[in-house]
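Field reference: sequence -> structure
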Amino acid sequence: MHIEDGILSPAAWGSWYAVTVAFMIPGIRQIKKKVQENLSYKPFLAMTGVGVFIISCMHLPVPVTGSCSHPCGTPLAAIIVGPLATAVISAIVLFFQAIFLGHGGITTIGANTFSMGICGGISGWLSWKLLRRLKCPLWLAAGVAGFVGDLVTYLVSAFELALSLHGNVPLVKQWMIFFMGYGPTQLPLAIAEAVFTAAVLQIMVNRRPDLLPGIKFRQKSNPEVKPNVIGN
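Structure field:
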């Protein structure tokens, strides 16, 4: 979904930048507030950003002009550090990938952040919250969050491309054409991301529950583990 430079018109990529900034401003404020409350939040957030960077570097070619297919990592990030903070670290990740790896582009950071960091993160986070409210097991809620967030990322990316490139073709038709171009590679990746998200979150809950105070789960009493305010 890393849309490259030169694909979107200046009006299009400028608009996506504006929309993305509207989410990043409260995200930056939230990060500053949490860092003031607990200094350990900053390295934890940085570690999460590194995870998103590595996961989203695994690119696969797709028959979609100026784009690619890959897992995202943002649904998991949104669960453990919050959706607004995830928008901020996604923009940073996409910037470094564009500069050092040639993935995506500088002009399209806004569009790519909106699809992966904002829509992918928020949709995964909302899925997680809904399923946990319905008393679903932690692994199931996390898995569905990873799956939904991954696919929503590519639905939005396909929409961004269709909005700029549909020409005389009906918008919805071109949108589905782009999305089906992602389908053969993205569906198995979404399943893999579901398994990965469920596994990582379950391991964190089992081994470092103090890092996730915002997540409710059954925990064996352990007086040696002290709460650490990092969760969303």
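Note: Residues 171-207 form the longest helix (37 residues).
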